[in-house]
Amino acid sequence: MRNYCNLTDSGMEDKANGTVDTKSPVENGQLPDPANWGVADVVNYFKATGFEEQATAFQDQEIDGKSLLLMTRNDVLTGLSIKLGPALKIYEYHVKQLQTQHLKSNAS
């Protein structure tokens, strides 16, 4: 189980005002490589970032970190059977960013 701490991400949205303080797993001040996450880590990440209800879809579909990094926009929007609004936010603000982070960390 990973530790969680508060991080602010200006790209995130809040139900009230367009910003949110998120909780993300952090190791040495950085997110660990999602490729090493198990299904429980993925579920906990989405619960901690405000998608408690939608996190169960990742559990039901057995999405681990490697699977998460392979997901396309269409996979998130249609393959997880979650409402369109949260699915768009999950893909744009989380999945895509985690994929980018993974690519950057492995390119160096």
TrEMBL record:
Pfam families: SAM_1
Molecular-function GO terms, alphabetical: chromatin binding; histone binding
UniProt-annotated stretches for the region Disordered: 1-33
Record InterPro entries: PcG_chromatin_remod_factors (IPR050548), SAM (IPR001660), SAM/pointed_sf (IPR013761)
GO biological process entries: negative regulation of DNA-templated transcription
GO cellular component: nucleus
Descriptive protein name: Sterile alpha motif domain-containing protein 13
Organism: Gymnodraco acuticeps (Antarctic dragonfish)
